[in-house]
Structures are given as structure tokens and as C-alpha cells.
Design goal:
With 257 residues, the chain is of the alpha/beta class. Strand 11, helix 7 and strand 12 form a beta-alpha-beta unit.
Length: 257
């Protein structure tokens, strides 16, 4: 029996892990770039999530009921929950003052921007800056599980030192023959222009079109697209993919600032 889109959506919602709230200790702080850190926590027993989901973070003693949403960068297979966060605004400035061993309040998982783990089609990931966070969870899990799906990652940053997870992304590309990574930089120093192996400039319509057409295999099933980054990039991404024949239901995005 073929299910209509609405029952399929309801079925996927029922399969999503149940959100809970818990107090946890900050185990480790990992410096990723000058303004991005990964905060690592132990997961509650039996708790899991789908790659792409997020948790809510609370500091009731400082901000009362206010909270913020942060995407999970670790794989569901990891014994730890990793939140990779850019220094931006009052909430994250408070995080930057905290030490390992401090107490945090988390609630989740939440979110519909998730990898469909039951499908077999290819995946296109388009991200900028810390927008790599949920995409990294997808890449990590797929590589660990040896999923036979091709991935294209188009990833934009300002300079080489701003590339979050740079070394690990390179390692994943070496380990996983199904992963193709294309970097682009928007503020490449003149002294590095001759040695930089990637592209330059912001992710734009021409860049997306060129990389997708070069990567996709003729006659293959339509790839699912996940974009995470500034609103302007995501608008361009959607317009380009639709112009290339992609149906809207295969285009997913999450806005990051």
C-alpha cells in the first residue's frame, strides 16, 4: 500500500525520539575556531536523537525561563552530546564564562530538519559557518554506519581558520568514498590564494548549480537537499534547486545567524 504524504509525515513524527528535560554536567570544552566552541555532555541513559535535531539550553539562575536552541553536532552513536556554538549575543557570552564541571539544563531533542535514515537516495549538504553543526551530525552518523549514499558538502567560511571541524571533515572525505567536500572562502588572504585548493566567494546561484551538476550522476534518484546558514543563502539555494528540477519536498533548510 502506498501512503499519502500526510500519513507518512505523521508516521515519521511518531518515530521521533521523545523530548525530555535534564540537568547535566559540562564534561569538556573543545576550541574549534576563534569564536566557536564545542560543549560536551554525557547523554541520559536511553536518550537518543535523529541527526539534524537540536536541544534547548536553559540557565534559570541567570536568565529565568529564557532559553535558546542549539543543533547537535555529534552522531547519535556517540556516548556524548556535543553542542557546537558560535559566540554571539548575551546567552552565548554567558556560556563562554562557564568551566568544565558546571551545571547546565537541557531539553530535547526537537526539530524536523532531520536526516531520513530509512531512505537510500543521495544527499546534498549546503552550509555556512556554524551552520555546519547539524550537517556534521548527519555526516558523522552516515560515515560510522557506512551508509551507501553519496554526499556532496558545499561549505562556506570567511578564512581557513574559521572552518569548523576542518581536520575531521578532511578525514571523513578520505575515509568515506561517498563523500565529496567543496570549500569556499569569502575573505581569503592574498598570500594564501596560490595554495588554497578550494573555491572563493560566497555561496551563490552559479556556484550551487555548477557543483551540483558536476556531482550528480545522470539517471540517479533525486537527492535530498539540506541547507543551514544565512537566510539569503538558503533562499538562493531553494531557487537554484527548483530551477534544476528539484521538488520542494526534497529541499530542507534551517536558518542560522
Amino acid at each position: 500500500m502506498v501512503m499519502s504524504p500526510e500519513p507518512k509525515m505523521q508516521e515519521r513524527k511518531r518515530k521521533r525520539p521523545r523530548a525530555i528535560k535534564w540537568e547535566t554536567e559540562l564534561l569538556e570544552i573543545i576550541e574549534e575556531t576563534p569564536d566557536v566552541k564545542t560543549f560536551r555532555f554525557e547523554k541520559p541513559e536511553g536518550w537518543t536523537f535523529i541527526p539534524g535535531q537540536f536541544v534547548m539550553v536553559f540557565f534559570p539562575e541567570v536568565f529565568g525561563k529564557a532559553n535558546r536552541a542549539y543543533s547537535i553536532s555529534s552522531s547519535p552513536n556517540s556516548p556524548y552530546l556535543d553542542l557546537t556554538i558560535k559566540l554571539y549575543g548575551v546567552f552565548t557570552h554567558h556560556m563562554w564564562t562557564l568551566k568544565e564541571g558546571s551545571s547546565w539544563t537541557l531539553r530535547g531533542p526537537y526539530g524536523h530538519f532531520v536526516l531520513d535514515m530509512e531512505r537510500t537516495n543521495d544527499i546534498i549538504l549546503i552550509g555556512a559557518g556554524v551552520g555546519i553543526t547539524p550537517l556534521m551530525s548527519m555526516l558523522r552518523w552516515s560515515t560510522e554506519e557506512k551508509i551507501d549514499r553519496r554526499f556532496l558538502l558545499l561549505y562556506s567560511n570567511k578564512t581557513p581558520r574559521d572552518i569548523v571541524f576542518h581536520e575531521e571533515i578532511q578525514m571523513i572525505e578520505r575515509m568515506n568514498p561517498n563523500v565529496t567536500v567543496v570549500h569556499t572562502l569569502t575573505r581569503l588572504e592574498d598570500k594564501l590564494k596560490d595554495s588554497w585548493p578550494g573555491l572563493t566567494g560566497r555561496i551563490n546561484a552559479e556556484m550551487i548549480r555548477e557543483q551540483v551538476e558536476r556531482w550528480q550522476k545522470p539517471g540517479s534518484e533525486i537527492a535530498t537537499v539540506y541547507g543551514c546558514g544565512p537566510a539569503s543563502m538558503l533562499t538562493t539555494m531553494e531557487e537554484v534547486m527548483i530551477s534544476l528540477g528539484w521538488p520542494k519536498e526534497e529541499i530542507h533548510y534551517e536558518k542560522f545567524w
